[in-house]
Write the C-alpha cells for this entry.
Amino acid sequence: QGQLVESGGGSVQAGGSLRLSCAASGYTSSSNCMGWFRQAPGKEREGVARIYTGGGGTYYADSVKGRFTLSRDNAKNTVYLQMDSLKAGDTAMYYCAAGSGMSVIRYSPSQRWCSNNADDYNYWGQGTQVTVSS
C-alpha cells in the first residue's frame, strides 16, 4: 500500500529549468531508496538520479551530472529533481520510483547505495512528461 505522485513536468526551451516533485505516501514514505528514471520512445528506461534515504547519499547518471540535483524534504515525504541547463536529449517521460530492502540496496564493505536498475524498484509513479525544444 504505497503511492507516488509526480508533478512538475512541462515543455521548456533548451537551457531552461524544471523542478519535478514526487510525493510519497503509505509504504513508499519509508522506502530505503527513491529515484528518478526516464524513458524516451524507442529507448530503454534509464536511471537519472537516486538517493539512499538511510545515509542521504545521492547518485546521478553521467549524462545529467552537474545539471540535475536530487533533494528530499522528509517532513513532506517528497523528493525533488531540479533540472537545469536542459537539453533536447533530456526529453522523456520521467518516473519517480521507490524501493526497500535487498532489492534496491547495494553494499560494499564501507558503503551502501541504491540500484540503478529499474526492475529493482517496487513502487512507481504514473510519470510526468518533460519536453525540451532546441
Observations:
- The chain has no helices and 13 strands.
